[in-house]
Amino acid sequence: MKERLLDPTFCIKEKVVEEGNAPPIFSVVDIKKLPKEYAESKVRCQIIVKKVEQKTNWYDYVCTSCGEEVDIVEGGYKCLKCVRNIPYPDKRFRLATICNDTTGILAIVFPDDEI
Prior knowledge:
- This is Replication factor A C-terminal domain-containing protein.
- It comes from Heracleum sosnowskyi.
- By secondary structure, the protein is mainly beta.
- The chain has helices at 2-6, 28-32; strands spanning 25-26, 44-45, 48-52, 59-62, 71-73, 76-79, 84-86, 90-93, 95-101, 104-110.
- The longest helix has 5 residues, at 2-6.
């Protein structure tokens, strides 16, 4: 395996860049003006993270089966959707931040996938 790893011709992967499918880059002012239909949609923007909220948890405990957030019931974790106890739930990260660009300031919560 070490020999294959050192061989540059063993596995050549070409980067595939799909043109035209990428959404436009919005500014903070444009994002604030988006209609309600974009409430939980993904948009692209170029921002600077100025502050990360440190007083709240950076993660939630989620069910290992369905991915829903679990509740603490009698000292243990319980998924109300699956109706079962979860001895070791997964952690799903969620960071609350304050970000800005040249047009304004915006509070953004980064979910697990983006982190």
